[in-house]
Every structure is written in structure tokens, then in C-alpha cells.
Amino acid sequence: MRCDSPVAGLLERAAGGVESAWREIVRRYAPLVFSVCRGYAIFGADADDVAGSVWLRLVSSLTTLREPEALPGWLATTTRRECLAQLRERGRQIPKEDVDEVEPGTPVVALLVEERRTTVRDALTGLSERDQELLSLLFSDPPTPYTEISTSLGMPVGAIGPTRQRCLARVRRIPSVAALLRDDHCHTN
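The chain above was modelled as a monomer; its predicted structure follows.
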């Protein structure tokens, strides 16, 4: 973990067991955690349970966080995952195996779709600007023609397909996306 930012220093002190650092992390980021909980209609003791799980995951991940400045995004993603886990656990959500049987437009499907979109959106921010722009043009609605992409990015038309394949391979290797793909594979086999 780099220690050239205030967040990095705070995380480093927390990893060293400095209680005031932990209090500052919770003070600073608890509103974010509870805001995500509210988005999933999780309140009160249930929200406290989610927050406790998030803080516990942070404690166990302190030494593996490579980008301390990305802590808010990490916390938001972790909170979303904990909210979905709690919804499944409490029986307020249909198990993933049964999602195909749920009518489109129901709150359960909307939650799952939004979680997937958020995961992919977060993953794309880890790509280079050029990769992000290429994928954005390719997956726009309607898709941008290759000739326009070629002009816009200064890339030969023949290089667009292979570059797209390499970009998507990089996206598939991002842990959060790989987990989604594993889940999909497990539920289709």
C-alpha cells in the first residue's frame, strides 16, 4: 500500500491498530455505507449488520488494498455485495437460480441488473481511456460504425476487432467481473 496520501496514511495507521484511525475511517465513510444500504431499502439493525460486515472485510483487506484513494469505491462495492447477500439470506430476494422465472421489471430483477451494471461500470474505469472510449463506441446504442471509430481513435478498421477482443479479455480478468462470469457459468451448467 502506498503511503503518499492522507487516506493511505489513515489506512496504514488503522492496520497498525491505531484506534483513532479506525474511528476516523468509520466517521468519514459510514455515511457512504449507510447511503448504499438505503438504496437497497435496508435500514436499522439490518443496515448495522451490513456495515459491520463491510468494516470486517476492510480489516481483512487492509494489506491487499493497492489503491488507497479508491477506498470509497471499494466500500461502495463491498456494501452493495453485502446488501445483496443479506437480502438473499433474509429471503427477501429470490435465489439466483430462480431469477429466470421472475417476471422482468420486478424489484428483484432490477436489483440484480443494477448490481451487474455497477460491477461492469466499476471494472471499466480500470481500463485505459483509449480502451474505455473504444468499448463505449462499440457498445453505444446504436453501435458506432467501424469507419467512425477508426477516424475518432486514429485506428485502422482492421485493428478494431482484435483490439476489442483484447479489451474484453482485460475486463474478464478483473476480479469482480470474473466472479460474475463464474456465477453465470455455475448457474447455466
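The CA atoms of residues 17 and 113 lie 39 Å apart.
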